[in-house]
Amino acid sequence: MKHILLPTDFSDNSWNAVKYAIQLFKDETCTFHLLNTYTPVIYNVEYVLGYPAQFGLGDAIRNTSQENLNEMVEKISKTFDKNPKHKFTTLSRFDTLISGIKEFLTETETYLIVMGTKGATGAKEVLFGSNTVHTFREIKCPVLAIPSDFEYEKPQEILFPTDLEVDYNTFQIDVLKQIAAHHNSRINALHVSTGKDLTFNQVNNQIKLETQFKGTSYLFHHYDSMNVTQAIDRFQIRAKINLLAMINNKHSFFENLFFRSTLNQIGFHLKVPFLVIPKK
To answer: Is the overall model pTM greater than 0.70, yes or no?
Structure first.
């Protein structure tokens, strides 16, 4: 039984992520937990310190949240054929998104979080909404972000950029391995050279990585010195990629790529689901 968390704000983006998750795991026994966190748009110190029921506002917002969750479950039942392997629960919480997710993770052994992201919007063309970026940063659970306009595709070709600087045994890559196994996916590991030869540790990690994906269709690609974002962009042009997976290593290019202040200067636009793998 896999427990999969689906945070939702009832937007088209979050509905798209729900649909993706249901289709991705259609052949697996799962409980999907629909989570909506809410805070009043306007509240004062008395509201926070006292009892929300005294003001009546808390009950109204909570009821609306729960009603919307119930409607989403009904929408799922109308959109998809009944799957005996799938179960759905709803959670409505007066909390921030990150705090609500963290609390859920303490209560439930969670396999994966699947959430929608707005993707490139407006002149800045920011890749991810702030909620998605905060979740990548703060949550120690694999997170799969689904672009708002992405129609479900079986993840046949998975791109896995790596700097070969990490011990893969310390990261939660089982999710990636199992997705690949269930969908007969090919893992395309991609290393971008900095212009120097691989170190002894990098060579060892390359061997370990290949061992990790033993039994899975696996290819290792090496690009000569170039920007990592350029490499990902170049790979997407020459090959049809259905999923991008990266390790969230604070000392790797992941940190530089997604958490820097110049986010809007990134030279590629991610149009496929993005799996972020944290440490165990």
So the answer is: yes
